Amino acid sequence: MSSIRRVISVIVLNEHGVLARISGLFAGRGYNIDSLTVAPIPDSKFSRLSIVTGGDERVLEQIVKQLHKLIPTYKVIESGEFVEKEMALIKIPLNENFAGLDAILKAYNGSVANTNENYIIVMVADDASRIDNFLKAIKKFNPVDIVRGGSVLMDI
After folding, report:
1. How does pLDDT run along the chain (156 residues), one tens digit per residue?
2. Does one domain contain both 108 and 49?
3. Domain check: are 6 and 23 in the same one?
4. Nearest Cα residue to 26 out of 42, 10, 43, 15
5. What pTM was estimated for this model as a whole?
6. Which of 61, 78, 95 is the endpoint of a domain?
7. Sheet holding 73-77, edge to edge
8. Count of structural domains, the chain
9. Residue 122 belongs to what domain range?
């Protein structure tokens, strides 16, 4: 059986223990969560979980059915179209040759986030697959640290 990438947006009541219960659904079936972001929805009693996972279609369907059954779950959106974005921070030593860096940053919605006497930190926000490509392109600048944030999702 082939492994498929799946994105799931879950709206839940903003209460303690919900995240543990949801991650337990995945762990209990031997599935990893590749990316997970959680944030409260402004002016509401809900939070949105954006989950990226992969696996067998049949098991993922079971997980989604269980998500629907959880008491604090308000809504599960696992099909349809999403706007999906991810962020990455990359630390590059200042002694590197930065020729071409500006063009790469512009191509991937990137910018300089911070700098000090030793390093420049660049930030990029784009689709997950484009972040992969950006990280390949930025290797020539010999980054010393990379932090990749999880995907955030919004249904269209």
Report:
1. 567 888 889 999 988 888 898 888 888 888 889 999 999 999 999 999 999 888 888 888 888 888 888 878 788 887 668 888 999 999 999 998 999 999 999 999 999 999 999 999 999 999 889 999 999 999 999 999 999 998 888 888
2. no
3. yes
4. 10
5. 0.79
6. 78
7. 33-40, 46-55, 4-13, 73-77
8. 2
9. 81-153
